[in-house]
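Dig into what follows:

_____
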Amino acid sequence: MFTQNLGIDLGTANTLVFAKGQGVIINEPSVVAINTSNKKVMAVGEEAKQMIGRTPGNIAAIRPLKDGVIADFETTREMLRYFVHKARSMRFFSRKPKIVICVPGGVTDVEMRAVFEATFSAGVPKNSVTLIEEPMAAAIGAGMPVAEPVGSMIVDIGGGTSEVAVLSLCGIVTSRSLRTGGDEFDNAIVQYVRRAHGLAIGDRTAEDIKINLGCAYNADENIHQPVRGRDLVSGLPRTITMTEVETRQALSEALEKIIDAIRFTLEKTPPELASDIMGSGIVLAGGGAMLKRLDELITNETGIPVRCADEPLKCVVAGTGVVLENLKQLSNVLITPGKIKL
């Protein structure tokens, strides 16, 4: 019998699970398909995501997390139960596993308590669960020297939130958490296409546009792709051509919010740590970090060098893995139930 320690990045868009000694063993969408007639779970993860926008009236494909926090407690519990059970089934069943779960930096004690309760309800022992703030986990996963007396700055752009933080000596010195992320990028594209072209498109089409045409800086008019949707006037299917420049316009407001958060955090950073950041630069993590030329935009706006982490999508969950490997040295970065005040 082996003790199986797990790190869980419970994201708005995707849930990743790290098993000690194995790496990332699960990477699936945070989606649950439920039969609304009897409340039975029909599918979870990738299978459930394929049902979004394609379900009959009695089946609902639900994303139980919104802006990085639990929006639907019961569905989140079932999703956690599914992922924990799947992780355990991948190796010998374990006794008393230690589980580290990531939460956004700006969550309240009530929201953290909801994560604890959902995990306990999913069958995980109460003394086995701890939380870690996403910017700290992302910085650790990106290989930044968070335990040293030097300033490090991380910008983690996830599906529901964007976390901007300055870290030093295993602590967050100053930070800003925005309820802005990949989901808002998708929604901005949906609204732009509706307003500029009179075409209704779904979230999956918007995500495809973001991946293929998304650009934060110096967009190219010659890069384009066809987009299919429903004409708002005739109600019939129609195809338009979307360009990289248009996508940049659609994303401009959301990107400005992230730039403002970076400026705010830098303004609140002590001078010595700010000097360190000028030398080491800003590190981007999360799915949003993969947006084309985002590093150039931030450098242009702040004058600070910016680089993207090697595997931005896995930085947060990789950080939980490092913590699990070094629990004694990094115990100060963890949040236990006893630390939450209600």
User: Anything to note?
Assistant: The first strand starts at residue 6 and ends at 10. The two ends are 37 Å apart (CA to CA). The longest helix spans residues 244-267.
